[in-house]
Design brief:
Layout (H helix, E strand, L loop, with lengths): L10 H6 L2 H23 L4 H11 L2 H11 L5 H12 L11 H20 L2 H16 L1
Helix pairs in contact: 2-3, 2-6, 2-7, 4-6, 4-7, 5-6
Length: 136
């Protein structure tokens, strides 16, 4: 999964980053994952795929995935998610309520964390929950 990132960083360095920076990376990883899965499963044109992808990488889709995985997260993972949810963000939630936006940010931060440290196994488990949203 880390094909575009040459050298993973240490977990200690990653957890010390601003949670919104982790979410910034995680947003891109989630988007790429969903787009790749949709392309692999469909012969639709890019415009149609974009419209479908928007539904699943939206704050609502990510918040639903976050709710599904919360109880299965370790204490350290939950701490990271709490930090991301509670970090003040100058960006306002668009087309969603604040709680949904914060849950989506928490999921993105967790995805960004695992991407940056190169833990492909755990990253795949989390992204599979995003994929379940696509299948449902």
């Amino acid at each position: 999964m880390n094909v575009f990132f040459s050298e993973p960083i240490t977990p200690e360095r990653a957890v010390a980053l601003n949670p919104l920076a982790l979410a910034f990376v995680g947003d891109g990883v989630c988007t790429l994952y969903v787009r790749a899965r949709l392309v692999a499963a469909s012969d639709k044109k890019a415009g149609a795929l974009h419209e479908i992808a928007k539904k699943y990488v939206s704050a609502y889709g990510q918040a639903a995935a976050f709710d599904r995985i919360w109880d299965a997260l370790s204490g350290e993972e939950q701490d990271l998610c709490r930090r991301a949810r509670n970090t003040h963000n100058a960006t306002r939630a668009k087309n969603t309520d604040l709680e949904t936006y914060k849950k989506a940010t928490a999921l993105e931060a967790l995805v960004g964390y695992y991407y940056l440290i190169g833990n492909e196994g755990r990253l795949a488990q989390i992204l599979s929950e995003v994929e379940k949203r696509i299948e449902n």
